[in-house]
Specification:
Keywords: Iron, Metal-binding, Oxidoreductase. This is Non-haem dioxygenase N-terminal domain-containing protein. It contains 5 helices and 8 strands. Helix 3 runs antiparallel to helix 5. It starts with about 30 loop residues before the first strand and ends with a helix. Strands 1-2 form a two-stranded parallel ribbon. A two-stranded antiparallel ribbon has the order 3-6. A two-stranded antiparallel ribbon has the order 4-5. By secondary structure, the chain is α+β, with helices and mostly antiparallel strands. It has 2 domains: about 40 residues, no CATH class; about 110 residues, no CATH class.
Length: about 180
């Protein structure tokens, strides 16, 4: 991450978590097999939705198993991601998200007015993504969002699309066979 004043990353005392020790039972693991199987039952899907909701509410994230994406695809995407984020800030900012599109590199997100220690590369699953300019039902203007295209690594964009396509295909597979 670029060199910045550390004060940007320090929360006010009243916003910091208490220093009591908490024991966690582990990151929630969500098994997607109820929706990736050929015959998912409505009750299994309902249970899955509740598990995801609980994990999001209690933890803010979760690990997914039985998603149908081969390990090699995941590893290739992780390797490419490390290469992208390992570049200089100057190179990453060449594909920064901006007012015209929510996709791209970003490293200045705030939580409680304190800068987060993270970097992201947002990527749209569908390109172009069409979005209404306003919430006015009479306003027909549409935004056309497209993805930023990093030059390095050269196959990063392809891997992102491939990964998203596999996830979508796996989730929709049961509908294709019906």
């Amino acid at each position: 991450m670029e060199e910045v004043e550390q004060e940007l990353f320090i929360q006010k005392l009243e916003d910091r978590p208490s220093l009591c020790t908490m024991e966690a039972q582990g990151i929630p693991v969500i098994d997607l097999s109820p929706v990736t199987s050929s015959n998912p039952s409505p009750s299994a899907i309902e249970t899955l939705v509740k598990e995801i909701g609980s994990a999001c509410k209690e933890w803010g994230f979760f690990q997914v198993t039985n998603h149908g994406v081969p390990l090699s695809v995941k590893q290739n995407l992780e390797e490419a991601s490390k290469k992208f984020f390992g570049q200089s800030v100057e190179d990453k900012k060449k594909v920064s998200r901006d007012e015209s599109s929510p996709s791209g590199y970003y490293d200045t997100e705030l939580t409680r007015n304190v800068r987060d220690w993270k970097q992201v590369f947002d990527f749209l699953a569908k390109e172009p993504t069409l979005f209404p300019l306003t919430s006015d039902e009479h306003d027909d203007r549409i935004l056309h969002w497209t993805n930023k295209n990093p030059q390095y690594p050269p196959h990063f964009r392809y891997l992102l699309f491939f990964f998203i396509s596999l996830v979508c295909y796996t989730m929709m597979q049961k509908h294709i066979h019906e």
